Amino acid sequence: MSYEMWTEKYRPVTLDDMVNQKEIVERLKSFVKARNVPHCIFAGPPGTGKTTAALCLAHDLYGEGYREHIMELNASDERGINVVRETVKTFARTRSMGEVSFKILILDEADNMTADAQQALRRTMERYTETARFILIANYSGKIIEPIQSRCAPFRFTFLPEEDIINRIKFICENENVDISEDGIDAILEVGEGDLRRTINILQAAASVGKVITADVVYSVVGRANPADIREMIRLAMNGEFIEARKKLREMILKYGLAGSDILKQVHLEIFRLNIPDRWKIKLADTVGEIDFRLIQGSDEEVQLSALLARLAEAGYEIRGDL
Questions:
Q1: Using an 8 Å Cβ cutoff, are 21 and 53 in contact?
Q2: What mean pLDDT comes out for the span 88-105?
């Protein structure tokens, strides 16, 4: 759930509501207490609370009317030098009215700004420090030029632990009266890959079906095959049942409407979970990479995936021979 969705349904979020990012929260609280905020860079993977942290900081700093003291720009849409020269500079040069003498400009996805725009931003940050503070939000802080990095206090966000994500899923389900099974939670965790925003979007999509959220419902709404089906296909192939494995493959393509690259990605994940010698995992990973390259070059999906199953069958024969 985004900051805006939460605020509309429940109440404004504060820094006290943030979970796991304890060190970051403590540092931001110290800024609020001192009524002073330096230029900042919030860097880390998507869905870890960077934008929400910036809005929470603004809320705690300015109070309920914090929206009057901040400006949000998404640098992936508005990232040219003209935006910095016009929109940003106009906002930055005017002083804030209230206890806090400066305003905050939040530049989301700042790592997508052009080099020229970043150079212009550097000078603006330096010139209008008394009236505006900048919070740059980026997935990759290395894409932000060094002069800007040296002017900012860095904050490194990390993926949330599974326990915190599970607690958030259960909290939302309880408040929205949504029934979810344990395997449904596990499936959402696997597909979400630590991104809480993606996790909540998947939960919402699964809940819209109107059924109890199970693993099958989750995989159907996100367009991914159930890992159990992928494992069964690999097992059949490696046991020498090539025709049955190919039937399973065609069944999954029809059932989930998957592209060959999607199935290939899941096969790649499952290979490393197989109970086979490491040298065979290396060989099979190399095979998957080769098939993936052929698909990218435009080869026929069914032919290439059948070739992959054939290689799995050959590997199964050789592994049993080794044992």
A1: yes
A2: 82
Report how far residue 249's alpha carbon sits from residue 255's, in angstroms, rounded to the nearest whole number.
10
Predicted pLDDT of residue 125: 85
Specify the range with the lowest mean pLDDT, choosing from 82-86, 109-113, 161-165, 292-296. 82-86
- Which residues fall within 8 angstroms of residue 237, CB to CB, at 6 or more apart? 245, 309, 310, 312, 313, 316
Q: How far apart are the first and last CA of the chain?
A: 51
Is the whole-model pTM more than 0.85?
no
* CB-side neighbour CA atoms (13 Å) of 250: 9
Residue 299, both tokens: 């080869």
Helix or strand or coil: residue 105? strand
* Three-state DSSP state, 108: strand
Of the candidates 323, 243, 316, the residue with the CA atom closest to the CA atom of residue 274:
316
Structure tokens at 51: 């934008």
Residue 87 DSSP code:
I
DSSP state of 84: I
- How far apart, in whole angstroms, are the C-alpha atoms of residue 231 and residue 270? 7
The pLDDT tens digits for 226-247 are: 888 889 999 999 998 999 999 9
Q: Which domains does the chain have, with CATH numbers?
A: 3-156 (3.40.50.300), 162-222 (1.10.8.60), 227-322 (1.20.272.10)
Largest CA distance in the chain: 79
Q: pLDDT class for 16, splitting at 50, 70, 90?
A: confident
What pLDDT, in 10s, does the model give residues 189-202? 988 888 888 899 99
Which residue, among 212, 209, 211, has the nearest Cα to 181 in the 3D structure?
212
Give the C-alpha separation, 205 to 220, whole Å.
Answer: 10
Kindly give the residue spans of alpha helices, DSSP state H, lying in 193-277.
196-207, 215-222, 227-238, 242-256, 260-271
Residue closest to 70 by CA, chosen among 108, 34, 22, 19: 108
Confidence of residue 11 (pLDDT cuts 50, 70, 90): low
